[in-house]
Design a protein that fits this description.
Layout (H helix, E strand, L loop, with lengths): L1 E6 L2 E2 L5 E3 L14 E7 L3 E2 L5 E10 L4 E10 L20 E2 L11 E11 L10 E10 L1 E5 L3 E2 L6 E10 L5 E9 L39 E9 L7 E10 L4 E6 L2 E2 L6 E8 L6 E6 L4 E3 L1 E5 L3 E6 L7 E8 L5 E10 L1 E7 L3 E2 L5 E10 L4 E10 L34 E11 L10 E10 L4 E4 L3 E2 L5 E11 L5 E9 L13 E2 L2 E2 L23 E9 L7 E11 L5 E10 L4 E9 L7 E7 L6 E5 L7 E6 L7 E10 L2 E4 L3 E4 L25
Parallel strand pairs: 18-25
Antiparallel strand pairs: 1-16, 2-16, 3-10, 4-9, 5-9, 6-8, 6-10, 7-9, 11-15, 12-15, 13-16, 14-15, 17-19, 19-23, 20-21, 20-24, 22-23, 24-25, 26-30, 27-30, 28-31, 29-30, 32-38, 33-38, 34-39, 35-38, 36-37, 40-41, 41-44, 42-43, 42-45, 45-46, 45-47
Length: 676
């Protein structure tokens, strides 16, 4: 393969130095007869040891004015080593200045101009003026190029050429050197040896055999000499070094792509300069590298197999490397077509069931990349009941979320999955898609409560018998009804009870057809004023409705009817009475019991707060005296008041009769056992 190294135009700033100075003097004749002045130039750096030639200047003088110039050189910019001006002779315009205070080979040069005007015998005068100063010198400057790596160990330099401009007697000449490793270099050589140079800009000179034999010549470097004639400068541009190297060139491959990563891929690679023993590989952007096994090879074609199982989709660069180190590259020459990535969002908790509206997103895509979306919902944060993503259909940007077969209105939790796809093989360029903001629109309804106005029953002894209403409660929505009461005996509500439901304070009545009323609102006490509260509980998107609420209550207007039965039994200090409520009157029975005494004006009583209608009740009367007559009667209390039964009588026993106890043989009575 033919190759070349090109060096762009170079201009070497050496040669003539020119300084132009302009100044004037003015002096009044009354003050002096002769005016003098001196100017010293800045120090000029020749950038190398110069060989000094002619010095010339341009000036304007008159019969009464003169200019003289001295020049000196030094080895440092401070001119500390230069001779003093007083020791230097005046220079002659357009004459070689070498010698005396000017030493060839010094790097720095400086001149001094002295001005004089004589006013004697004239009332007018003209000052001397110095316009320009030029000092000619010549240097031989060199430039060494940076090393160039041909990439192969057997490269051969075949030619060096350049463009040049050589005014006067200036010159341009080259030498070349080579290296195996870029650090250990051979000698600088011309066409035949280290003593000659390449001077033909057209490249007609034969390259030295040391640098054209294909051995140890991987790195190439040139050195150029730019030689001034003291007045003119050579100009060099476009340096080109041609070399031969067996660097593989890949022109095409087949196939150029597969849809998915194959377990086995066979590639045919066409090109040139393939060497026996070359290696071949495919590498993607994430540094996955598959090394191929070459099954057939010529200098112009390679057939190789690759194992690509589990390799990522995307672009791959094909590389062929010859044994000499030459590398041929086909950048992005092979593609596994689709690269698909997934972004699964965290689970969004809306706090309650909601209605789902549209979903939209921003994204950066191209002709070869797309972003699609799936959405699913559930009623638990773990999404354990949600449909698997594989069974969810994709939805369009801006579409209703409910277009997804995996979303149900009224559910509380939502999650989306974005699918980002790049199809590499459809274009020589590609852009990876980028997902921006995802917006989910939804709606929901919060619970709301309605309070009724106060209702005055005008009676404190009320018993609430039932509560009913009509309702429509779609899906998971619900209706909660609560009641509270107040005595309000002064004609307006005073202290209100808690809000009661079916099982107590803070609970709800939820059965529209009626359910048991809580006991505190059926006792007939302190219930003159009534108020209800309705709470409509939506499921997020469905709102219940209620109508025709009815509270049925009765006022306790009659007391119960009580029957007293004869005592069940009597003892010397206790007796058991029996009673029954034959009619509870209005409202439930709150208390039942017995009153008893030595006369029909009762002294004592006993009672209990649990009673079932139409059931007999019994209680033991205690604290009786032995062998004494007592009167007792049953009583019952409802919201309206207390009723008593008829009097019955009994006499306590004088002693307690015990049944006979037969002690069997060998029965031992322990101490402290008392028989009553």
């Amino acid at each position: 393969m033919k190759n070349d190294i090109r060096q762009l135009t170079m201009y070497l700033g050496i040669g003539a130095m020119a300084m132009i100075l302009s100044f004037g003097f003015f002096a009044k004749p009354a003050q002096a007869t002769i005016a003098t002045g001196t100017i010293v130039s800045s120090v000029k750096d020749t950038t190398g040891g110069g060989v000094f030639g002619l010095m010339s200047w341009s000036a304007s003088t008159s019969a009464s004015s003169t200019i003289t110039i001295k020049v000196r050189t030094g080895t440092t910019s401070s001119m500390i080593s230069a001779p003093a001006w007083s020791t230097c002779s005046d220079a002659t315009n357009s004459v070689d200045i070498s010698g005396g205070c000017v030493v060839d080979g010094h790097q720095y040069i400086q001149y001094q101009a002295s001005f004089s005007t004589d006013y004697t015998g004239t009332s007018t005068f003209v000052s001397a003026e110095l316009y320009s100063v030029e000092i000619g010198y010549s240097v031989s400057a060199t430039l060494v190029s940076s090393p160039y790596d041909t990439g192969v160990t057997d490269s051969r330099v075949t030619k060096i050429s350049w463009n040049e401009t050589k005014p006067g007697t200036t010159d341009v000449k080259f030498q070349i050197r080579t290296s195996t490793n870029g650090s250990s270099w051979g000698s600088w050589l011309g066409p035949t040896s280290a003593s000659d140079y390449y001077t033909d800009p057209g490249g007609g000179e034969t390259i030295n055999t040391t640098q054209s034999d294909g051995a140890s010549d991987r790195y190439i470097q040139y050195k150029v000499w730019l030689v001034s004639d003291g007045t003119n400068l050579p100009v060099l541009s476009d340096v080109t070094i041609n070399y031969d190297a067996n660097i593989p060139v890949i022109t095409s491959i087949s196939p150029i792509s597969t849809t998915t990563a194959p377990s086995s891929l066979t590639l045919t690679v066409n090109g040139s300069d393939f060497q026996s023993g070359a290696t071949i590989s495919l590498r993607n952007d994430i540094n996955q590298t598959a090394t191929g096994t070459i099954t057939a090879s010529t200098s112009v074609q390679i057939t190789a197999t690759f194992s690509m199982a589990n390799y990522s989709p995307g672009r791959y660069t094909l590389t062929v490397t010859n044994p000499n180190g030459g590398v041929g590259i086909l950048t992005n020459g092979f593609y596994i077509e689709q690269n698909t990535g997934y972004i699964t969002s965290s689970v969004k908790d809306f706090g309650q069931g909601v209605g789902f509206d549209a979903i939209s997103w921003t994204a950066t895509t191209s002709a070869t990349s797309t972003v699609t979306m799936k959405v699913r919902s559930d009623n638990n944060s773990g999404m354990t009941s949600a449909t698997d993503w594989s069974n969810c259909n994709t939805i369009e940007n801006g579409a209703l979320i409910t277009a997804s077969n995996c979303v149900t209105n009224g559910q509380r939790y939502l999650q989306y999955q974005a699918i980002l796809t790049t199809a590499y093989a459809t274009s020589s360029t590609y852009a990876t898609p980028e997902l921006g903001d995802v917006t989910v629109n939804y709606y929901s309804f919060a619970s709301s409560s309605l309070y009724s106005s106060y209702f005055d029953t005008a009676e404190i002894h009320n018993v609430i018998n039932s509560l009913t209403w009509n309702e429509t409660a779609p899906v998971s929505s619900d209706v909660c009804v609560q009641i509270r009461t107040s005595p309000g005996e002064t004609g307006s509500p005073t202290s209100w009870s808690d809000w009661y439901g079916a099982t107590g304070a803070g609970t709800c009545y939820t059965t529209p057809t009626g359910s048991g009323i809580y006991s505190a609102q059926r006792d007939g006490y302190n219930d003159r004023w009534l108020q209800y509260k309705i709470t409509l509980i939506p499921d997020g998107i469905n709102i219940p409705s209620l109508s025709d609420l009815e509270i049925v209550y009765v006022t306790a207007s009659t007391t119960p009817t009580v029957v007293t039965s004869p005592a069940a039994w009597t003892g010397s200090t206790v007796a058991k009475g029996i009673g029954r409520v034959s009619d509870s009157g209005t409202g439930p029975i709150a208390v039942v019991g017995f009153q008893y005494g030595l006369t029909q004006d009762p002294t004592w009583s006993t009672s209990k707060n649990v009673y079932l209608n139409n059931d007999a009740f019994d209680l033991v009367m205690t604290g009786l005296a032995k062998d004494t007559k007592y009167y007792y009667r049953a009583f019952a209390v409802n919201a309206r008041g207390t009723s008593t039964g008829d009097w019955e009588e009994f006499t306590s026993k004088a002693t307690t009769t015990l049944n006979a106890v037969i002690l069997k043989t060998r029965t031992i009575l322990k101490s402290n056992i008392m028989l009553r």
